[in-house]
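Researcher: We're teaching a course module on how sequence relates to structure. For the next exercise, students receive a sequence and then see the predicted structure as C-alpha cells, so they can try to spot secondary structure elements on their own. Here is the exercise chain.
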Amino acid sequence: MNISVQPLTNQAFGFPRGAKRRMTPYVLAVVHQTSNATANAQNERDYANRPASPGPSATYYIDRDGSVIEAVDAGYASWSSGDVRAPDLSIPTVAQMVADRAVSNWSPPMNANEAVWDQYECCGTGEEPWTDAQFDTVAQLIAARAEATGLPIDRTTVLAHRDINTIDRATDPWPADRREARMARLIDLANAYLNPQESRMIGVKIVGPAVTVKVRPNEGHLLISPIDPTVRFGPADWPELAAVPVDVKDAAGAPIDIDGNQPPQNDRDRCYLVDDPSFGVAALALRSDCDVLAPAIPTPTVLPPGVYEFRGEVI
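Model: And here is the predicted structure for the students to work with:
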C-alpha cells in the first residue's frame, strides 16, 4: 500500500482549530465518497488545505487505484462528519456521540468528529463509488487502527457518513439498497487483515456448465449469503437452484480437502456456485464444514469460466 504523508498546513482539523484531541475516540472509521467524478486524492487533499478553510477535511484521501494521501495525523480530529442531522440512533456509538455532545461543557462543545479516529474520503461518485482497490486499502488501514487501539471492527465502530447525517448524506457513501452489503464487505475484509490466521484467500474455479441442483438434508450443505454472511439457509430451506459446479482451491492453486477425506477434490469436495435470479444473489453451496465469507462476484449474472477469489476459511 502506497501512503503519501502530506499534513494539512492550514490547521483545518482539531477542536479548537489546530488543537490536539481532547478525548479518546470510540469509533474507528467513518467512510465517505467524494461525489466528484474528476478529482483525484491530491486534488481533494489540496482543496482541504486551502487557506483558512472551514472544512471539510479527512484523515485519508484514497485514489481509485488504492493509493493514499494521509492529510491529518491521528493525534487530531479531522472535519468530515460534524454535520449531525437526524442521526441513526439505533447504532450505539452514534447514540453515544449525540449524548456526549448534549452534556459537553467544553469550549467549543464536543464535536462528533472527535469520537472518530479516522475519516476516509474515497475518490468516486454514483451508486458504486468505491473500487476494489479502495475497499482493500481502507480495510488495511482500519485493521491497523483496530490493532493499535484494541477496538473491535464491527458496525458500531465502522460507520458510514449517512449514519451521522441521514438527511443530507443519505447516500454517502452508498445508497440504502446496497449500503449494508458494502459495509459488511468492508468490515469482513478489515477483520481478515486484523486476524489473518483466521482467514485466507480461496480461489474458486468454474469447472463446468450450469446445472440445477437440489441439496438434500443428509448431504449437510449450507447456503451462505454474500450479502450477509450470518444468513445461512439450512437444508429445510433449500429451493431448487440453478448452480455451477466448482472446485475449491487455495491461493496457490492447490485443491482444498473440504470434507476431510483424501484425496482432495473427490466427489464430496465438489461445491456449487449458485447463480439463480429467483434466489436473487450469487452464493456458494458448500458442505457444512466449509465456510466462505463475502464473495465479491457479480449478482446475479452468468459467470464465465475463470478463478473467483473469496475471503474465507475452511473450518
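Model: If you want an answer key for the exercise: Helices lie at 41-48, 92-103, 132-149, 161-164, 176-194. The CA atoms of residues 205 and 307 lie 5 Å apart.
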